[in-house]
Amino acid sequence: MAKTSSAYACTECGWQAPKWVGRCGECQQWGTVAESGRPGATLGKTVRATAPGTGREARPITELRGDAVAHRSTGIGELDRVLGGGIVPGAAILFSGEPGVGKSTLLLDVAAHIASLGGRVLYASGEESTGQIRMRAERTGALHDTLYLASENDLGTVLGHIEAVRPSLVIVDSVQTLASDLIDGSAGGPSQVREVAAALIRVAKDQGIPVILVGHVTKDGSVAGPRLLEHLVDVVCHFEGDRRTALRFLRTLKNRYGPTDEVGCFEMTSAGISEVSDPSGLFLSHGSEPVSGTCATVAMEGRRPLPVEVQALVVPSPTPNPRRVTSGVDSSRVAMILAVLERRVGVKLHAKDVYVSTVGGVRLHEPAADLAIALAVISADADQPLPHDLAAIGELSLAGEIRPVVGGPQRASEARRLGYSRLIDAEASSLRRARELALGKAG
After folding, report:
1. pLDDT (tens place) for every residue of the chain, 443 residues total
2. Cα(222)–Cα(429) distance, integer angstroms
């Protein structure tokens, strides 16, 4: 006789085991293996082959049509850029972000654009009532006859709405608020999230309806629930931004239909969210008088060059331990740059407080901003402003050399388009030479 036993599964990735173990064998997480709630799983049985159904036979790839999965525009250019050209029919998209960042507002705007093009959209919310969504739609101008609202927490009812409306797009806000009566556990639990997502994705694939699932995030910014959720969907988008500022960024962490290095820029206004197709001037100061301690650089957000201004302030320290304060840049990277400046260029900073920040709240993670940070600190220490038409692009080595960076021609072209006629990059070869070029022309 076949041996029966309770099945155990990892709540993060879905890995299964015949008995309980302390550590998952797939994702290597501790304490995530629990009983899956399906007792009587049979071990030792052989899976028998079954004939595929009609229309589901394996076919040569050359006989399949590619236009059936072509991207369809959402009407929002920045969202289309991030998705690789638009939404693919039958795609499952996971949309995550911190509370209050504007996920629901953006998706309601997407629903309104699709409805304005003649498509039917079902917006199912388990967090807000239909009256609350209607109020936000009136404020953002998202009222259309083909935009259907439903406030439901039951998975079966949502599937019934899909059968009744026959929409061309389904938005579920959020997947953690839906639950099925057939699955044990409360809404938001690993088993419920896994079953809800699997059911909605199955509908998307069978009927060719794109489904957008809104997901909550944890304290560290990752999607709440099992990691299996990110494996099931086709696209994972993360909507981020500081709630104290109006700027928002949309990034793709996974995309089966396009690139994952694109970034969409949006701005939160009183009338909703508007796309920012050219964010070139958002991260540059517009002061008329030259000020020391500022230098412009060009960062790459995906494949989009983005000019950013770096500001630095150097003052004598009243304490034995000088302060190093950063905002928008990596503190350890700045500490390394300060050490290179003191050792290779002779800029004495060991008894001074150094403050480094970016304009507009943008964060610089790439080493291409090293040279701009260094020149801003040099300018602040000498109290000598750099030329207003100067930009710096380059990575610094511990030897004081300037290395070329990825996307150099695109960055240089964007800098010239914005009026930066003087560009200091890897051609300067060393940080000492870059300082002479910058401060020499400034004088």
Report:
1. 444 446 788 877 778 888 888 888 887 888 788 876 554 444 445 667 777 777 678 888 887 776 556 889 998 999 998 998 999 999 999 999 888 888 999 999 999 999 998 899 999 999 899 999 999 999 888 899 999 999 999 999 999 999 999 999 999 998 999 999 888 878 888 888 889 999 999 999 999 999 999 998 877 777 777 778 888 999 999 998 876 678 888 989 899 998 887 888 888 887 788 888 777 777 777 666 779 999 999 998 777 888 999 999 999 999 999 999 999 999 999 999 999 999 999 999 999 999 999 987 788 989 999 999 999 999 999 999 999 899 999 999 999 999 999 988 889 988 888 889 999 999 988 999 999 999 874 43
2. 41
Domain 294-442, architecture per CATH: 2-Layer Sandwich (3.30)
Task: Give yes or no for a contact between 305 and 299, defined as CB atoms under 8 angstroms apart.
Answer: yes
Q: Residue 435 corresponds to which tokens in the numbers above? A: 């300082």
What ranges do the domains of the chain cover? Answer: 1-48, 71-275, 294-442
As a 3-state breakdown, the chain gives helix, strand, coil percent values, each rounded to 5, of 30, 25, 45
Q: Which CATH architecture has domain 71-275?
A: 3-Layer(aba) Sandwich (3.40)
